[in-house]
Amino acid sequence: MSTAALRLAGSDETRGLWFGVLGVAIFALTLPMTRLATGPAEAPQLSPWFVTFGRAALAGLLSLGYLAWVRGPRPQGRQWGWLAASASGTVLGFPLFLALGLRQVEAVHAAVIMGLLPLVTAVVAAVAWRQRPSWAFWACAVLGTALVVAYALLKAGSSLQAGLHVQWADGLLVLAVLSAALGYVCGARVTAQLGAPRVICWVLVMSLPFTLPAAGLTAPAQPVQASAWVGFLYVALFSMWLGFFAWYRGLALGGPVRVSQVQLLQPFLSMVSAVPLLGERLDALTLGFGLAVIATVFLGKRASVDTRGAGR
Question: At what angle do helices 117-128 and 135-157 cross, to 10 degrees?
């Protein structure tokens, strides 16, 4: 590969990582905003089912307008299959399994399993794109995941009297992780041909025949607090729509295997955002683990990834 080609590839990877960071920063607010939308168990607001289907339906209607405005190319051939697979993971599977799981376990418990998302995404991407990451890359991915899990376990020790234990809700959270990884990789597969905005818009439009009626059937029958609607609007406009503009662009530029590791920052960004929203405090443990995770992402960026088989 020529020097110019190597320089261009490096530039694309850097841009991809920054787009990935932007997407993760947007997604980081999903947890506190979902908490505002659904409310605690003792004072429920919007149902998890309505939040799941309603946010996808609203984003889908906005996507119809966007596609009519840009008048871009329509998906062709096998692209429809990739989009359908992405929809099954990001529009339906992930938000539904996550919402159902969080009704049974506390968020700190769920964070232990959700911290595995970057590693699972990297594995799915490596298989789907036929890439061969180096041992150094895998070491950084495993180390970063271990740091996230260790942090969640340490924080859980002070908030869960019975400790962490496996229960059926954990299976739902694992399904959420697998769904998200599948959706991310399948969406990135066609981003280079359609563009990031069109990918998420087509994914949402394809889902409308299901999400729109489901949202109507699960709509709240009783008044809810204004804060619940604020949370719902955020997860619909940003978590379900605009965030994917940046995220899929990042995956396409930098490659899903490498950019997926930026997700390791998401738990800590969520905690930072929870300070003004939920009145929580940042402590030395959070800052220390956050810096350590950032270091693994930086080292993972420098590790080699063999992409000669990608896309075949």
Answer: 150
